[in-house]
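Hi X.,

You mentioned you wanted examples for the new student's onboarding notes, showing what a folding record looks like when two proteins sit in one file. Here is a clean example. The first protein comes first, with its sequence line followed by its structure tokens.
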Amino acid sequence: MNTDPVAFVREDFVRLFNVGVAQYKERGEGGDDKAKARYEDIAAARGAVQIVLEGDGGGALWLAIADGAIALVDEAPADLPSRFAIAAPVDAARAGLEQLEEHFDEDKAGRRFARSASAEIEKVLEGNQLLFNVTFKDIPSDPDEVTLRIAIGSTQPPAEPTFSVAISWDDIEDVRDGELTPQQLLGRLKISGDATQAMALGMTLMQRRQQR
């Protein structure tokens, strides 16, 4: 896999997303009802995503999702709604990919990437706009703190967020290891600003996930 963030998005993410969709489709056609439902949800998703990697060697990238496939495009597609925009320091993204490289599993990564597209989630978020920052603290790398600027339902990452969230890296690791549930993680977040709308939408999404 590429550890250069721009190359990773352009080559690895796009390729593996489409591989993951194909895997869900094949499993669904083979009789796996869960995989079939997942494929149908992904295939119905439509939207554009902007990724801004800030700093030397970075750049702005647009991804278009439609008909169960993702593609790199030169600009925001006029025929697709802007679903998501994120800005991250390119150096921090590179450090994260270097850490990920040792444990990277392409087979699992493809399906995880494919699940980032969901018509069901789009319906929940439709008509809502969220502008916020997420800061990861005590990361075991340099830098040890990274802030992402995120917009949902907007074409650009926010210059001024409505609210900010701070997350401990240890808590993320505990969720990954199964020692902490996503609901428990919510209780440990440090939030500043008005996150009422985001919390309500987050609870709706978690409830739908539990019902599936």
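Then the second protein repeats the pattern, sequence line and then tokens:
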Amino acid sequence: MRFVLIAAAAACCAPAAAAPRSVVSRIVGGSVAFGKTSDGRTARLYTLTNRNGMRVRFTDYGGLITEIDTPDRLGHKADVVLGFKSATEYEARNGLYGFGSPIGRYANRIGNARFTLDGKTYTFKPNAGPNLLHGGAPGYNVRYWSVSMRPFGINHGAVLTLVSPDGDQGFPGKLTITMRYTLTENDELRIDYRATTTKPTVLNLTNHSYFNLAGEGNGDVGGHLIQIRANSIAETDAMALPTGRIIEVAGPYDLRTPHMMRDGIEVLNAMGRGGYDTPYVLANAPRKKPVLAVRVTEPKSGRMMEVYTTEPSVQFFTANHLRGIDKGPSGRPYIQYGGFALETQHLPDSPNHPEWPTTVLRPGQVFKSTTIYKFVTPVDRLHS
């Protein structure tokens, strides 16, 4: 979905990922400087690698995932997420995109920028027409997170921590959030979220990375094949806000079998939609363990990405608003449809739809959520 901050399932896809191999991922070089933000603070860039040569980089500024390097069918590596070269550039240029961003306190839209909880109505400054998008400013993607690098069993990763004060962005309750980034030997980037609150609040966390499996800046994603394990979507209006109706997938929204992204985008353009910005319903409640939700393949490179999640919804967005104005680390412009996002989350505007899976978090409860991005090559698939 467009990012404007400053700062149930079909049995069509493969089973869950196999258990990790018994070798150890590595943390490389601690951290390095990643440019300065306007407050004079130096951001730090952290790197994770595994024995297969996959590399993930992220920064304490915004908790941003800045790079994911994976091989193609010939073993040639490319960075498959859109981003910028430094924290300085992210601060200056990422406001309309949210590349690599953790989103909170409430990912996606809240209708009319208001909701009522326990009899009290909370109102916010609209930032997407009359609605609130991604919690408002300052977003979690422009704050410094505390980073602790540490091993997790046979894997390595990092725990990022952020404290969101009571009243932050207008939301009630002091929220303490941890994100755990883990790179496994199965070429999985796993994100585990955990949060607690001091007052009743609403919470919807996600990651807003944009992917191009041909490599960042390498044209549009129209030739990618996508398959989403969902029988229904939340119907949305012209502002991408749910109308309240859950409807069966049909036409360009029916992605239960692999479809070329370009085909659906063209139909949606003819309908005046501009491309995908669509909330798919995966389940009627969060799952206890991550379940395969989406598979995307880029035929030329052979790269495949599978998304597993405990969340009941995923927002599929085809970077409809990119216009070739900004360039990534490769120096190539990010053109329209130059990436796609798969934002695992609860449905947009859930605080105003009590019939949907709840986003309310109360004192004494612990919010937990997991999403896994698994990268597969044809060779991997033959031997799995």
